[in-house]
């Protein structure tokens, strides 16, 4: 486990160094009237720009491309290493800690590692039938009766509009 942590620290240090070098290269490429990573190296007439050193810019752009590829590889290695480290921690903790903690949370499989669910799902919302039994809202001959309404709205007023009219003052609509 200590070897895995040391490897992750080493990979993280490499990643930090790459990111610093990328920032320095991006700063050099965009400084002053620089072309940046994707700007033109030629003017409108197709001639090389006289205000920049084209071989240097091309070399810096090539170095940025190499660093970006290396950064992707390092990040993939870090991801895999973290997965292995968590697996080692899980296996080394044994059954005693797991039994004391209670049932394990459900996990979602994602590639080479698993994600633990943050919390259990919320309870299901009450259905219209439950709401009708409670007298809050429910269907009346196929028409939705808003809470607080004495009877079903007239057929010329849509149910949603009737609901909005009943709750205008409550929510501050149209006041």
Automatic annotation (TrEMBL):
Pfam families: Nas2_N. Residues 94-129 are annotated as: Disordered. InterPro entries: Nas2_N, PSMD9. Residues 8-87 form the Nas2 N-terminal domain. Residues 1-28 form a coiled coil. Keywords: Coiled coil. This is Nas2 N-terminal domain-containing protein.
